Every structure is written in C-alpha cells, then in structure tokens.
Amino acid sequence: FYRVLPSKAHGLVLSEITSTEAKFKLCRIENITTVKKGNLQLNLHDGRNIQIQVKDASKKPDVEYKTRGTLKLSIPDQKILDYYPMGENVQAIIYKGHNIGFAGKITKITERFGVNASIAEIGDISTAYNYAFIIGKDVPSIDLPME
Fold first, then answer.
1. Is 44 among the domain residues?
2. DSSP track, 97-126
3. Rounded distance, CA 141 to CA 82, Å?
4. d(Cα 48, Cα 27) in Å, to the nearest integer?
5. pTM metric for this prediction
6. I need a surface site. Which of 5, 85, 98, 132 has the fewest CB within 10 A?
7. What is the domain count for the chain?
8. Can you tell me the distance from the alpha carbon of 48 to that of 140, in angstroms, rounded to the nearest whole number?
9. Residue-number span of the structural domain to which 57 is assigned
C-alpha cells in the first residue's frame, strides 16, 4: 500500500504504508454547505462530499466542523473516524509553496484580512495559512517518510 505525500526534494512522492494505515485517509474540508432539512455537506479536497445529518436544524451539530480542518475517513466505507481542527498546537504538513514537505507542530497562526494572506508558523517556518494540511493533534496520525 502507498500514500502520496508532499516532499521537499521531489514535490510528491509515494510513501509505503502499513495495512493498518491503508484503512483510513485524511481529507481536508474545503467548504461547508447547508443542504435540505438543514443538514451539512462537507466538501473535501479530493472531490468527495459527506453529508452530516443534523437532528434539529435550529441547533448546532455535536461536532462543529470548520473549513481547513481535516477528517480522518475509514476506507472503503467513508465513515468519519476523527476530526482535526485547524489551529495552534496541531500537527501539519505543508503541501504547497517553497517549503513543501515540511511537517511539524503549528506554533502560531497570524490571521490577516485583505491582500496579505494569513500566516501559519510550523516550527521555524512561516507559510500561507492555506498551505498547511492538518495531519494530527499531538502526534501525526500518518507515518511520514524520513528525508
């Protein structure tokens, strides 16, 4: 089994994974829309859409999903196993830009509005907030290749 991961040296690489790790996939929430009866539809980075049934449309759902957060989905049944919100003190990997492939804990997020993009600091590296892909809470939920 293999997983495609961003790499500092090669852009994208195939990383060999265990059969246990092959049973789930991490998907970033790109957008959230409201559909019939007040249910939520999570639009994910890979084109998947997952509907969340809301018991009472006037109340918030049990878990408050937000854009740029990451879902841990079981494969092949696509059940939500865990949710990792975007924020400080979570594990992330940079998947775009000059620092592609760098992984670590987000130490600081500076939100800006207008022309200047929001910044996420991962260790000593600062990158655009949108370039960080959350991969876990205290520790990464996936094995990362050593480079």
1. yes
2. STTTT-EEEEEEEE---SSSPPEEEETTEE
3. 10
4. 9
5. 0.87
6. 98
7. 1
8. 23
9. 21-84
